[in-house]
């Protein structure tokens, strides 16, 4: 845990210097990670990893067709589809 904290400390100081410090800055990242964990399957590390990569790629590809303001909406649409058709997650046995 000490190693992980030390590795995060440097970007934690440098990113606000570049982008500015905002109290809600990590909310989008936290929501995207939560969606990846739930849609990948609770307790499935592989599912969360694969869904995180897939969601990121789809979010970035959506920027080709729509405004950047809607990229988070695309993430929630993916989550809605998973909850409708696969509520236990992608990598769990039904």
Task: Provide a descriptive summary of the structure in words.
This protein has four helices and no strands. The chain has helices spanning 2-19, 27-40, 45-62, 71-85. By secondary structure, the chain is mainly alpha-helical.
Q: What shape does the CA trace take?
A: flat
Helix-strand topology string: HHHH
- Overall average residue pLDDT: 84
Helix content: 55-70%
Task: Give the class from helix and strand content and strand pairing.
Answer: mainly alpha
> Helical segment tally?
4
State Rg: 15 Å
Largest sheet: none
What is the CA–CA distance across the termini? 35 Å
**Which consecutive residue ranges, at least 5 long each, have pLDDT under 50?**
none
Number of E-type strands:
0
Beta-strand fraction estimate: under 5%
Task: Please outline the helices and strands.
Layout: H1 2-19, H2 27-40, H3 45-62, H4 71-85
Helix pairs in contact: 2-3, 2-4, 3-4
Give a quick precis of the structure.
With 94 residues, the chain is mostly helical.
What distinguishing features does this structure have?
94 residues; mainly alpha; 4 helices; 0% strand
